[in-house]
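TICKET: design request
STATUS: open
ATTACHED STRUCTURE:
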């Protein structure tokens, strides 16, 4: 991978990590427990709890993605970025463009 590509993916990854951190910060409130004594009716309370579950699930996924992004940034520093961690083949540029944090090629995913 040439230095231009490395720079492109490095920029993408830092942007992605900022976006995820931003999301995690903003969603902190909606992820906290639904207060038992709030003024919501029973139905809207259930909805609020379902929403909360969705936010929690999304936050879990985003946290995992953030770890992958941080790993990918490390892999850029170690100059192993862009190769599959299992078979060592180059990961296709299409795949990296869509998910710069992936660590495996299509075959090993
Ligand atoms: Zn592979």
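STATUS: resolved
RESOLUTION: sequence designed for all positions
ATTACHED SEQUENCE:
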């Amino acid at each position: 991978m040439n230095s231009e590509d490395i720079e492109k993916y490095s920029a993408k990854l830092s942007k992605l990590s900022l976006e995820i951190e931003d999301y995690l910060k903003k969603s902190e409130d909606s992820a906290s427990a639904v207060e038992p004594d709030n003024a919501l009716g029973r139905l809207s309370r259930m909805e609020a709890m379902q929403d909360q579950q969705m936010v929690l699930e999304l936050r879990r996924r985003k946290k995992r993605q953030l770890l992958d992004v941080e790993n990918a940034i490390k892999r850029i520093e170690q100059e192993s970025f862009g190769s599959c961690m299992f078979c060592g083949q180059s990961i296709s540029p299409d795949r990296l463009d869509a998910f710069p944090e992936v660590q495996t090629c299509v075959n090993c995913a």
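CLOSING REMARK: The chain has a mean pLDDT of 92. Helices lie at 3-26, 28-31, 42-77, 93-98.
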